[in-house]
Write a structure and sequence with these properties.
Strand 8, helix 4 and strand 9 form a beta-alpha-beta unit. This protein has 254 residues and is α/β, with parallel strands linked by helices. The protein is globular. The strands form four sheets. Strands 9-8-7-10-11-15-12 form a seven-stranded mixed β-sheet, with helices on both faces. A four-stranded antiparallel β-sheet has the order 2-1-6-5, with no helix packed on it. Strands 3-4 form a two-stranded antiparallel ribbon. The chain folds into two domains: 55 residues, Roll (Vcp-like ATPase, Chain A, domain 2), CATH 3.10.330.20; 185 residues, Rossmann fold, CATH 3.40.50. The protein contains six helices and 15 strands.
Length: 254
């Protein structure tokens, strides 16, 4: 079994609506089911049950990467796990990879990238909004992944300082404007990805990639539908996270 120590991240879970990602320390966790003494979590095993002062049960779970991403403190729209999964498998992202990210937002994708490039890789993140950057930095620190991220309060126009990188992610409003900069920094045969919320952004970006000589250009939309499993009345959920953006992938040639 894995024992909980002070400073560990724990998912305190009651149900899909009542679950909290906390760093174990002193104090109380207040919920509509009563409060929990967080210092009492230390020394317990992941998976154990604890009870509030009102007698309602919660479980101390080891958080997954999905939960770390979804529970970042948001000051911007985030890239969701449904899209992040495809980005991670389509890009050259591996332990030791060097990755550039333009537009850190709230740090959701950064969390995933840092998780996969460690222990010897690096994510070089660029963000022009200092408030967003500082919030993302706090999210990465909470998730224990800031060591593998270089946080840059800077807007890139023509060229990134890093060269011969394994992957570039562009998440800004004018994606096409950084195609040339990405081309200068990527290794030959490696991938660029971006996410485009609108058709106008998508067409401008794809045409810019073609003009720059990128190949293997593909545009994908990822849709996810959850299923409510109930005895005698299993059905799909009535609402679903559908369009978040079109993912565009392209490969640099030499």
């Amino acid at each position: 079994m894995s024992m909980i120590e002070a400073g560990d991240l724990v998912l305190v879970y009651h149900d899909h609506r009542r679950n909290f990602l906390i760093k174990v320390q002193g104090g109380r966790l207040h919920t509509d089911k009563g409060f929990l003494d967080m210092s009492a979590f230390i020394g317990k095993d992941f998976g154990e049950k604890v009870s509030t002062n009102l007698g309602d049960d919660f479980y101390l779970l080891k958080p997954t990467l999905h939960e770390k991403i979804m529970k970042v403190k948001r000051q911007t729209q985030i890239i969701y796990p449904k899209d992040i999964g495809l980005i991670l498998t389509r890009g050259q992202i591996f332990p030791g990879a060097n990755v550039i990210e333009s537009g850190i937002g709230s740090g959701a994708l950064t969390t995933a990238l840092a998780n996969f490039v460690r222990p010897t890789g690096k994510v070089y993140s660029y963000e022009r909004n200092e408030e967003f950057l500082q919030n993302a930095k706090k999210n990465l620190e909470k998730n224990g992944l800031s060591e593998w991220v270089e946080f840059n309060h800077q807007e890139i126009f023509d060229e990134y300082p890093q060269k011969e990188v394994d992957f570039v992610m562009i998440d800004i409003g004018s994606q096409w404007a950084l195609i040339d900069a990405a081309h200068k920094s990527l290794k030959g045969g490696c991938q660029l990805a971006t996410i485009c919320p609108t058709f106008d952004q998508l067409t401008k970006t794809v045409f810019a990639l073609e003009d720059k000589g990128f190949v293997n250009i593909e545009t994908i939309e990822v849709l996810v539908r959850r299923i409510l499993v109930r005895r005698g009345k299993t059905r799909p959920e009535q609402t679903m996270p559908s369009h978040t953006g079109w993912l565009v992938f392209a490969t640099k040639t030499t």
